[in-house]
Request: fold
Amino acid sequence: MKQVIIFSNCEQNFALELERIERIIEYSKPKKLPETAEYIQGVIKYNEKVLPIIDLNLRLYGNPGEIKENSKIIVILWKGSHLGLVVDEILGIRTIDEEAFEESAIGEGSISSEYIKGFIKIQEDIIIVMDTDKLFNFVQAKEIFGLEDEIFSDSLVEEA
Reply:
């Protein structure tokens, strides 16, 4: 059995393993950055550091997410750092039996998106379990890490 947090984006339910999540915070408008990928909304101040904020709708579906009253930021542990994922709504935390979990097939006829770790089948719903370490390719990951390394002057961190 494993615990997951279930959230919705673009009318699809997703899950992240609880051990990958540091915190869920209220959405706050990030400070926009020039010359970054479209899905990078910007950065916010988080625990005295700069936290890159990712528009998960734009990253997964190519459509910008609409910020709603229920929108949240899930702060995840990602490759030894932190990253904020904007989601439409948090649906809850569930403990999932191993029988309800099905890994995504590897090989011919498999699901092509590497970030799909598997699926959870609950009643009539199929929930996509995401592997956040594989959400970005090498070039994208390098750009996100660069956001932290470039370090925006202290004034940007203070204003955020």
